[in-house]
Design goal:
The complex is a heterodimer of chains A (about 210) and B (about 190).
Chain A lengths: L1 H29 L13 E28 L12 H5 L3 E18 L6 E4 L3 E5 L4 E6 L5 E7 L4 H21 L2 H16 L5 E5 L5
Parallel strand pairs in A: 4-7
Antiparallel strand pairs in A: 1-2, 2-5, 2-6, 3-4
Chain B lengths: L1 H16 L12 E23 L10 E16 L8 E4 L2 E5 L4 E6 L6 E7 L8 H19 L4 H19 L4 E5 L8
Parallel strand pairs in B: 4-7
Antiparallel strand pairs in B: 1-2, 2-5, 2-6, 3-4
Classes of the chains: A alpha+beta (about 210), B alpha+beta (about 190).
């Protein structure tokens, strides 16, 4: 009888230990109801102020997915129970996937009087530089870490974000948005220059 | 043989439970004609500071992080908001009424984000990239909130006025009056 009681107590203690360990594991790794950590209130400091004159005429917004995967190098053995999780994970050791929403702005950079105007009695000639990509805008609020498996360095994330920026830029070029920008520039300046004279716009300035 | 059959079934169960990791399909892109004249560019820096002290009894150890970041903000006026009645021409005189200045672009380039210090002790986990991105989002919101107090919109108004005066003078107008709308005047 006494032996049974001792055995029961031992079992209860063992169960208790298992439950405590389980609780810790759950809290550390699986409890998704963590409060969002708040950053401290620090001031911003202005590093530079520039006077510019950029006219954006086309805006292109897109969402790109960038991904990096590291697979297990060594072939696994089906007989080794330690390696069974590999099959479950499709042999993927680490994976980082980002969804980046960005905006590309295309237009003219007229900073420092980068244009010229000539006119006579019936015509105005507006010489402008070629439209180009002015900005590829990305920000943390538009970036989602879709999947993070394993440990990743800042540099890895940074490389993916740079890849996303490049993708957005290349998409804008493929969509021939610089051509589209030329048309928008003509339309915009026609509405700004309200004159009875004929307006001729070319994109030869600085060539 | 029995052992082999057991392993086979176990592998089959594990394999069938796993899901293919499908990448999300991106949404359709958007192309718009705009007409923004950006006249001022501010580069601002911010140190993102976080001290994650263990608050629950079962956690042991602290985590601290300092991330430096830079944001590039451009401000100017939306030229497409200039309506027909906003430009008045009489001979060699022109009066242009400008729409209110606004922030035209905001970017936090990943190249300018650096983790300056990261300290983890006790049994705490390292900061994940997901957590760091959440801190950066908060930093971005703080910059957007504080940037209005720097006078960027006033600079944008002044520079837009100067640019348009110069532009219309080059067109041959002798008297150019540009009337900016300050944010307080805006409806």
């Amino acid at each position: 009888m006494r032996r049974d009681v001792i055995r029961l107590l031992k079992n209860l203690v063992a169960l208790g230990i298992i439950a405590i360990i389980g609780f810790f594991i759950y809290q550390y790794y699986f409890n998704s109801k963590k409060d969002e950590l708040k950053i401290e209130d620090t001031p911003i400091h202005i590093e530079s102020i520039k006077t510019i004159a950029e006219i954006s005429t086309v805006s292109y917004k897109d969402e790109v997915v960038v991904d990096t995967v590291e697979l297990y190098k060594r072939r696994s053995s089906i007989y080794d129970p330690r390696e069974w999780m590999r099959y479950y994970d499709r042999n993927i050791k680490r994976r980082l996937t980002l969804i980046v929403k960005g905006e590309v702005k295309i237009g003219l950079n007229l900073t420092n009087g980068n244009y010229s105007i000539n006119s006579n009695s019936d015509t105005i000639w507006l010489h402008l530089p070629e439209p180009k990509i002015l900005d590829v805008l990305v920000a943390p609020s538009k970036t989602e870490i879709f999947q993070e498996k394993g440990t990743w360095k800042d540099q890895d994330r940074k490389q993916l974000e740079m890849k996303a920026k490049l993708k957005l830029k290349n998409n804008a070029i493929k969509l021939k948005l610089i051509e589209k920008s030329r048309k928008s520039v003509s339309y915009l300046f026609s509405s700004l220059i309200q004159s009875e004279k004929k307006l001729i716009i070319d994109f030869s300035y600085g060539k | 043989m029995k052992q082999l059959i057991f392993y086979f079934f176990l592998f089959f169960i594990l394999y069938s439970c796993s899901e293919d990791e499908k990448l999300p399909s991106p949404n359709v892109y958007e192309i718009r004609n705009i007409g923004e004249l950006s006249t001022t560019e501010y580069t601002v820096g911010k140190i993102i500071q976080l001290d994650d002290k263990a608050t629950e009894w079962y956690k042991y150890g602290d985590r601290k992080i300092l991330i430096s970041t830079k944001a590039k903000i451009k401000a100017g006026v939306d030229l497409t908001q200039i309506k027909e009645g906003d430009i008045e021409v009489s001979g060699t005189k022109i009066i242009v009424k400008l729409p209110p200045a606004k922030v035209t672009s905001f970017s936090m380039d990943p190249e300018h984000v650096h983790t300056e210090m990261e300290e983890i002790n006790g049994f705490r986990q390292d900061f994940t990239q997901q957590e760091k991105n959440a801190f950066l989002k908060q930093g971005e919101a703080a910059i957007k909130r504080d940037i209005a107090e720097t006078g960027i919109l006033q600079d944008a108004n002044d520079n837009a006025t100067a640019f348009l005066k110069d532009f219309y003078k080059n067109l041959g107008y002798e008297e150019v009056i540009v009337q900016p709308t300050t944010p307080n005047d805006a409806p």
